[in-house]
Amino acid sequence: MKKEILASLLVLASYGASAQESKATWVNNLKLSGYGITQYQYSGQSGAKANSFNIRLVRVSLDGRILNDVAWKAQIQLNGNTSTLGSSPRIVDLFAEWQKYGYFKVKLGQFKRPFTFENPMHPVDQGFMGYAQNVTSLAGFNDRVGAHSSNGRDIGLQLQGDFLKSSNGRNLLHYQVGIFNGQGINVKDVDQRKDIIGGIWVMPVAGMRLGVFGWEGSYARKGDWSETDAAGNTVEHKGAIRSLSQHRYAISGEYVVNDWTFRSEYIHSTGNAFAKTYQDSKTASDCTLSSNGNKADGVYVLAIAPIIKKQMHVKARYDLYRKTGEWASAKTFYEIGADYEFTKNLEISAEYARVNDRTLAKHDYDMVDVQVSFRF
To answer: Which of 76, 158, 257, 299 could cross-link with 178 by S-S, CB 3.0 to 4.6 Å?
Structure first.
């Protein structure tokens, strides 16, 4: 399957090249690119010690422009298996965006949800061994609600733009708002309710962003479940839709200057979750609720400092997530690390993390992560 997908992209790329050679003007700037991240990770968690080499990500994308005003992109993830929805090779991006005006752009298809600063960042450029826990759990990666792994993406329509320029021509304000199915990638809507997600941020000085985000929507499954009504009676539901409302907000700040990076985001979520993650047809109809309740929140604070500008960095991150919104469920990573860029297309990074997980009998353990990333 991986070979067939890659072959298809190569055929498209060669077709695009031929089109350019024939001086076709309706499609141009066709580009085939991709990246891979290999990983070694050690975990000293009591009762679950592990150390393993792993292929974290392999992705290939094809993008271009049509008639200058429309940009499009198709991206697939190749690593994984073919037995489950969440970890199999799959389409992650497929969209087109009308970009005639910088202050008003329209995007349609499957792409990143407009929620948090970190979500849309490239996995290599994000800076650490993985996205922060609150972003992973509350922005549509491995979402606490029980949705399949969707890499922060969904299917929908989005408006975005920049405006209010300073005296030197730099935009001071950005907005983005979209309407989405609410079910994650490659899946149709279930409850016919749509998610409304948006954000706005100001850029008072070069390199600084201060923003807020909101998310109102739902996640649903169709299946069987039972619940107790107000009178204490058990009510059975057969082949019905169970829709779980979700209310989320994020407060974000970032400052990037002279190869230094400072970033912090707080996310809060209200809304119940399903007990099992959607992986196949069986879990897709499992409407049992999670015991984690209807609240969760998390915050991260990070700093990345150059040792050799644009080549070598040291970094640190505080990463806290509370899956029930209470301290008894808190999981905290205290991370330090470094990276070295051999070229702009090849990088090695290493991290040490001390983890405190209050849900475990033995709260504290160590982790080591080493990754080699390449782009083409």
So the answer is: 158
More confident residue, 26 or 255: 255
As given in the structure block, the two tokens for residue 360 are: 């475990």
Radius of gyration of the chain (CA): 22
Domain boundaries, position 188: 2-375
pTM score of the predicted model:
0.91
For the chain, the residue count is 376
CA distance 255 to 117: 11
Strands 171-180 and 153-165, by their bridges, are antiparallel
What pLDDT digit, counting tens, does each position of 312-331 carry? Answer: 999 999 999 999 999 999 99
Question: How sure is the predictor about 25, in pLDDT bands with cuts at 50, 70 and 90?
Answer: low
Q: Number of structural domains, the chain? A: 1
Cβ neighbour number for residue 227 with a 10 Å cutoff = 12
Helix H, strand E, coil C: the string for the chain is CHHHHHHHHHHHHHHHHHHHHCCCCCEEEEEEEEEEEEEEEEECCCCCCEEEEEEEEEEEEEEEEECCCEEEEEEEECCCCCCCCCCCCEEEEEEEEEEEECCEEEEEEEEECCCCCCCCCCCCCCCCCCCCHHHHHHCCCCCCCCCCCCCCEEEEEEEEEEEEECCCCCEEEEEEEEEECCCCCCCCCCCCCCEEEEEEEECCCCCEEEEEEEEEEEEEEEEEEEEECCCCCEEEEEEEEEEEEEEEEEEEEEEEECCEEEEEEEEEEECCCECCCCCCHHHHCECCECCCCCEEEEEEEEEEEEEECCCEEEEEEEEEEECCCCHHHEEEEEEEEEEEEEECCEEEEEEEEEEEECCCCCCEEEEEEEEEEEEC
What confidence tens digit (pLDDT) does each residue in 149-172 have?
Answer: 999 999 999 999 999 998 888 999
- Judge whether 349 and 337 are in contact, CB under 8 Å: yes
CATH of residue 116's domain is: 2.40.160.10
Q: How many CB atoms lie within 10 A of CB 20?
A: 15
Q: Give the residue among 134, 169, 170 at the shortest CA–CA distance from 152.
A: 134
